[in-house]
Amino acid sequence: MSEPTAAESVPQFSLPGLEPGPEPAAVVARRGRRKVSATLIVGAAVVVLVVLAALVSFFWTPYDPVKAFPVDRLQGSSAAHLMGTDRYGRDVFSGILYGARITLMVGLISVGIALVIGTPLGILAGMRGGFTEEATMRGADILLAFPALLVAIMFGAVFGASTTTAMVAIGIGSIPGFARVARSGTLQVMSTEYVLAARASSQNSFRIARRHVLPNIAGMVVVQCSVTFALAVLAEAALSFLGLGTPPPVPSWGRMLQESQQFLGTFPMLAVWPGAAIAVAVLGFNLLGDGLRDKFDPKLNGER
Amino acid sequence: MESGSLVTTSMNPSSSINTEADAAADPLLQVTGLSVASRDRQLVQGFNLTMNRGERVGLIGESGSGKSMTSTALMGLLPEGVNAVGTVRLAGREGNLLTASDRQMCRIRGNDMTMVFQEPLTALNPLMKVGPQVAEVMVKHKNVTGRRAAKNKAVAMLASVRLPDPAQAAQAYPHQLSGGQRQRVMLAMALANDPELLLCDEPTTALDVTVQRQVLDLILESVRQRGTGLLFITHDLSVVANVCDRVLVMNKGVVVEEGSAAEVFTRPRHAYTRGLLAASDLDASDEDGRLFTVASAAAYVPPKIKEVLAPMPAATLRAPRSQVPESHGSPGGPATGVEPVISVKNLVRTYQRGRTSLFAKPLEVQALRGISFDVQAGQRFGVVGESGSGKSTLLRILAGLDQPTSGSVRVAGNEVAGARESALVDLRRQLQIVFQDPMGSLNPRMRVQEIIAEPLLAPGQKVDSARQRRLVAQMLAAVDLPADSAGRFPHQFSGGQRQRISIARALICEPRILVADEPVSALDVSVRAQVLNLLSDLVDQYQLTLVFVSHDLGVVRHICDNVVVMNQGEIVESGATEQIYEHPQHEYTRTLVGASMSLRSELAARAAQSKGRFHANL
Amino acid sequence: MVVRLAVNVVRFIVTFFVATVAVFALMRAIPGDPAQISLGVNASPELLAQTRREFGTDRPLIAQYFDWVSGLPQGHFGVSFVTRRDISDMIADRVQVSLILVILSMIVALLIAVPFGTLAAVRHRRTSGILISGISQLGVAIPGFLAGIMLVVVFAVGLGWLPANGWTPPGQDFGDFASRIVLPVVALASVQGAILTRYVRSAVLEVMSEDYLRTARAKGLGKLEALVRHGLRNASIPVLTVTSIQLAALIIGAVVVERVFVIPGLGSMLLDAVGNRDMLSVQSVVMVLVAITLIINLIVDTLYTVLDPRIRKQA
After folding, report:
1. pTM for the complete prediction?
2. What is the ipTM of this complex?
3. How near does any CA of chain A get to the CA of C171, in Å?
4. Residue B344: which CATH number?
């Protein structure tokens, strides 16, 4: 049986079009050509910048971000104070650096909570179907009526303002997003023939989840992480702005913004710096999410 | 428009290959030196075509041949980033269509030159009723004025493509129509303004066999009646043989052969054409009884015109298979007393669909309505049916992936009905499946090694990783893939190679039964024969029982000894393959056999039809 | 279609009541006694007991829950433990303010998003398209309250064109109302508009690659003509989905923006109640916000059936 079938890979007479078919080269080329997009690079660079700012704040800030120097209050930008000082004479640049730490921590923990709870729930719903799916998705629908910020305000009312409350609340509010993404991805994977093949080989659900579902939805989940991170940064800023986030004196971007409000007429730059910091961080994570979305083809097979 | 360029290129470049260009004085369509390229790839190169009014030309090519790019270039609808150069002239229109402005093209498209696309569901606007979609093209080109007139004309067009109850159909949304009906709507739309030229891009590929025949007949009749020129793009040689006078064979963006249909199909000059013919001719086989492949095409004898005209001598054409499995093949001899390897009794499967009213009973869909059959060990058993016949449901139940509503299914001694997951493990070790979609049946994130070895991870199989690797290497050799394939990912392989991987996965745990679910219907013709030969060889080599599910009668006929014909959840006929094909008893089987096309039968039909003229030409 | 609506209404009611349980349970997770909080630490035991009776907080939690929930459908929320005012009256006042703000903002956001998003899709390879995408990407990154602050800095403080904050009911002095609502609406709408622009763009891009658009072109329709006649209605379906989700975000975003512009809406009431630890008010306002969100979802789902014939038939 070796002779004629081998011909598929080794044509006996060389003619255009008699190779196994034109598509492998094309497919490989398309894969290879799918370069890392500019969006992804810029997004990653901005995120790295925010992470660096947070890391640097552990070892060095120009001034103690918490300590007040009433003598130096409300100064403009200068060599001594890159972004000026606030009404207590605290160095704004130091506060921005330190605030990156809070922002990242809130983002990491809340995304972590949503990821760890939402993803398995979504996978379970997608794989089990029936009552499990209905219950999970109705639950997600109910949670969806409570945006992260509303959950956080309620938590703030009950447990008082703290970074922990904010993180947990934002995390809970972000669960439905992960559950939905994981479920729709799982449903797509479960409808493929390779899962059918796995089931036809008596693979149990756990193994199908681990070998087939997880690797194929990982890209979508990573994208969701990035997008949720951006939303968490926004929510944290809003909470701190409302006085329901990180309590003073620890500097956070949202509260710096809130404190600047009474000086808008006289020292608008006090609002500009933390505002810019928030916008840049959110932009970074959004761009990263977009770039990753292009990279991980949402059409799971990577074809078409 | 730019009249200057018109003068310089207006000399007649009558194609050197084209021998039939006698009426080329005022050709309908004249394409000269058409090349299509994207930023980094040449898709079509040096395409020439001269078409006369009312002529029917077939453009044949496999996937990636550039045939669809050619037709979209003619319509001026190339996707962004893809550009065409050359000249395209259409009778009655000034200048080169390729350099015409979009505004000018808009006047031509839908009026002088129209197109029918492959997938009728996605080609129609889902949110718009069908009647207005047909009316729109007439109103746009001002061939009808007034809403009422447009509406009436649309209904008349729908009637002319023989939609049942056209007035009602005009009020329907595309999703309420069947695939064949949608394609009729597309055709009504394309013919509404009585164009000079109709482009059809694989118009019947997405349709069922019986529907395909009807739509083809309709296209043929319509263009004949109206004297419309037809450029028919397809991969299917028998369809072209049915429809077209003249054919162009395209490969990798270049036309390799051109001539009259009879000429090209009976005396192919180019090796690619010969290979394509050989591979798609399921009625012919080499001295070993295997299908011709592109590689073995040198020995292939194309159908002779005389032979085609005479009733087909099946016995001489179909050489006996090297190993004849009879209708049993197990050493036990005839079936008496030997338990069949698959035994299905009164199998019923119903599904519940969403309820239409809160209190009404949910709709029941009967996928299988009580079917019974036995498959003996060593048989090659064909299951033939169109979409909705229940063949996929049957297959899933056979593999224990779905449960019967009632009835009994025994596979290799295991009862499926009511079995628990753990009880199905043995069944699934005995029965493995090769799936239809060569891309979708392989996990894109797994290496071939892992994919093929997956059945070895089933409970009860204790195979260490070294042995796994050895077994995978063996299987790769068995399906003729290079050993280094194990470390690669599915996307690095072609469709045919992926199907080989799928076969390797199915056979690694040495099942007794192999179920093939349309294993070649997504493959190009030239690859199809190779995969079928491989499948056939492996079935012999591993002494498998083969259950082959397909809509394609030709393929089933070639590979199976016994066959059941399914229609709407029932088996309408069963028996030995030749028996069923030569003497179909049931009405549906007759329709199915009548509708299915093979190259030979189409050439014969053609020749018979135009016998006189044909002989005069010779 | 009727079935679908019925199912959705049932779903709405169930979701709402599950939400009431969750909110109530969370609010009563607070350690401490509402009466004690409202009266302060120095209150006499007699007064405390009397206040508890008055609020009904001496009764079992289940009973308190049913007291509260049974009032909700009629709009009876009870009397605040802290301000001793009828919560229903306050909400009735405040909800008008918030709805005006939210609805105006959504309309403006859509007026920005639909044309610009479509343009960005049609010209996605040209400078104008890329520019719109870039600006919308930037807009998404700016929270509404930040946009509000920036607007105040420029137009109220800097240029002095518009008042920085405050609220006048439209019936009282429409001119003043209009001048005061411009900045908050622009703050909310610019951010929402940016988000929606991106969704409109991707929906239109998606539709532009559909086969039926190619069919429309093959019929002789021009690029824009084909898109308008065959594309926009198809693209509106995913945009509608996003709009309904974004409305929930807008309502909550308005809470913060109300704070920036000192607008007496539900948001201010909620935040005041949080500040006062006025739990009954908090849970009532939260339920009103949730109800608004759910009702919007209900309306949107009904709109689907109007837009898409494919889902009319199924439940």
Report:
1. 0.80
2. 0.82
3. 30
4. 3.40.50.300
